[in-house]
């Protein structure tokens, strides 16, 4: 650590503001950040609407650049104020932050790199830090745990759905044939998933009596098996006893590890002093 | 209270009739009121049907005015018989009652203020007072409590649905493009919500194989995550033990507070004598 | 009882065959009856298919008459073998049996009385007597009890759905207007129910951005509140302990009361000797 | 057993590889097999896509023959290495394996026997052997047990759905008639199932006000009764206590019985020595 005492204090202060939401400044930073994330998403959306884009193209473009530059500054500050920048750069949020920033720069060089902007939506996940309400974090943890606990059962269930869709889709392709919209097996399997999940677009629908009979069976089947994931998640949630969860938003200045205990003095991950 | 003994008695009697459903007169008042609320809704509905409106325009108009005048009289009586009229005027029911009454008057001056009539539907909520059956109130309380208790979990869930819709909607816009109906990102996000909730209108449907593949994933995802709110509400309902709930319909003549205990002598909110 | 010993025995024997499924003859009778009920339903269905009806009109007509005459004979026998014919005639099954029989006779006199044949479907409920498997009766009782126990909660829920549909339907009528298919308020309310229940035909679909935004809210709402009836029924089913249920199919020869205990000597309803 | 010591060892070794997944060789065999099953399904799918089939017809045909020959070899080896080949040949997997292999041979003689290839999807079920993860087997067992336990209740429920569909379908046929797409009763019943299960294609949709009113009832009904199978499965899953389940993949070399205890010396079904 080749930095003098004063500089470290300056970095430490910024670290508290950027990575934590316990102090008023940290909270304000997160609220402002969230505002710009939402603004950036709305900008991308408006840009995609032709009638709006032709009218306000320059305005939207300027807005995009403002957001992009702010995101860039934020990304650089995050890298500077953390002791292990690489660890942040390759963390989930670090990658999302980078990918949300670069598409505008890339659009100067390449055409069609706009696709990455979709990832800006993921930045919305930061909202959970701002809410900074134990119950929100607790609730999302309870949900995530219930889903995790039923992970295996849900995999088995989804696998069964895929097998059923392949078999019934192939059968429907045989029965209905190309003249009724079931032009090939992948499309028939797609139809089967559309029906089994009770979405039912209606762009492809069986026309022959036999096809409609089998479709009815698929529907009742889909109607019945929707009970399975529900049953799985419900019984898991009923088990979970909503234990107290630590909602401290401090992040270790050394390794960015979170969820420290409220009275923690050292990082549980790297042992660095938290204060 | 600058009213003599007799007037107060008259006001008190009316208060009992209008605000409470324990006496035969009070019950009759509520039933008649409900009849006129339903009549007013049917009138608005019929008026919107062109073929009926051209035939019976005058009849419907007269009906509307009768209902509006009756609602006006009722609103004024409610204001008069309550000790704190402002508290009623700015209560949930007070606002609904006012907004259900004024659109017809406004229609004399302005055009297009008809929109407010939709709020008359909310007046239907008064039905719960008339049913005056402990089990209905109890059941609705149990439901409301279960939903309240799972409020935070459901918010987290809905927030996750919004993020998923934004990301997948943007991706689908990239893949399908304008020629397949995904004309802009907001419309793609709309499509994603239509699919995720298994509604599936079919006005926008993916046409490319890759788009249909991703749509299949969205559907199975939507099919799976419907389990989450169900699981949340079910485990809450299973917890709730259907405790006895006070179903007294008396309202304080001073401040309109409700849910007094059956043997209450004074209002729990303002201390006013209830008898 | 003005009948000699022998006649009573003959009536008693027939009663056992027709009303009970414990003896081989009784079981055979019920199976044959079920066969004719299913045949009668298939006949009505085939008759409605134009291409089949034009080809086999006479054949179908003869089949219909055979079924109708057999049903008539069965109905008369049921009236004769019971001690209190009026009680049977006005019981649930008695009315269904009559209404399933008369439409063919009425079709000789009036045109368009065919509508009643739909009621033949209800005769299928007799299948539960034939299955004569305690577990089927037990299972259906458990289900019915769970639904009965949650009757009040489900009413409250359905009432909330109706109010939401009326309000949101009216709002959508204001926003979308006649040019986008929301021709009147009843139709808008219908659209709202189609969307809220996630059926989503797509014959009416919002076209304006604001309409699509509100539709998205309706969908997520519908997606969320589907959790409520599920939660209600699940928590009721979890409570029910699948108690042993009497599955005796004996019916009192005097008053047709059912569900007698296996070792019952006298009818629990009218005190008549069961043997 | 008219085979010398050496041959038996050779057969035994092959049996371990083909029928079991405990040894590295057995696991490798299963992974390779799964790869070819998935390849065979993809081949069938691609062949059905016209644009791909015209381009790569020969390539796909060769691939099909390679897969078919490999499946044939595997099927013969399975028959040889098992002591009771007939028992395997008539087991669930034995029939599936045969039916997945023969359609290509039959296509040389007959036209249109391709229908059987749909059954190849069932071979995917072998994936569960490869996963060879106790928790997957355990999870699928828990699910299957919960569904088995609620078998009777679900039958009753499905039967009720069928009766409701027949009655409401017939009523809608009367109301809407042929001019609105309800051309005959079977089609109306199909519509009713499409609506009741909330699939809602929209190819048939009620047009008359009365028809739309009844359709609304059908939808709310369908929305409500989806709660029933969910409640059934959930309460069963909540009961099941995720007991330890034996996940040994050994198969008896004599009779192919599976699920032996880890320390089993003899087959629990035929008493044959397992080692």
Could you give a short description of this structure?
With 275 residues, chain A is mostly helical. Chain A has helices spanning 5-19, 24-48, 50-81, 85-89, 92-109, 120-123, 127-131, 134-149, 151-176, 185-196, 209-225, 227-239.
Write the layout of secondary structure elements.
The structure is a homotetramer of 275-residue chains.
Chain A: H1 5-19, H2 24-48, H3 50-81, H4 85-89, H5 92-109, H6 120-123, H7 127-131, H8 134-149, H9 151-176, H10 185-196, H11 209-225, H12 227-239
Helix pairs in contact in A: 1-2, 1-3, 2-3, 3-5, 8-12, 9-10, 9-11
Question: Would you mind describing this structure in some detail?
Answer:
The structure is a homotetramer of 275-residue chains. Chain A has 275 residues and is mostly helical. Chain A has helices at 5-19, 24-48, 50-81, 85-89, 92-109, 120-123, 127-131, 134-149, 151-176, 185-196, 209-225, 227-239. The model of chain A is unreliable at 241-247 (pLDDT under 50). Chain A is flat and about 75 Å long. The first copy, chain A, has 2 domains: 2-132, Four Helix Bundle (Hemerythrin (Met), subunit A), CATH 1.20.120; 142-239, Helix Hairpins, CATH 1.10.287. In chain A, helix 9 crosses helix 10 (185-196). Chain A contains 12 helices and no strands. The two termini of chain A are 16 Å apart. Chain A is 68% helix and 0% strand. The interface between A and B is large, with 52 and 46 residues.
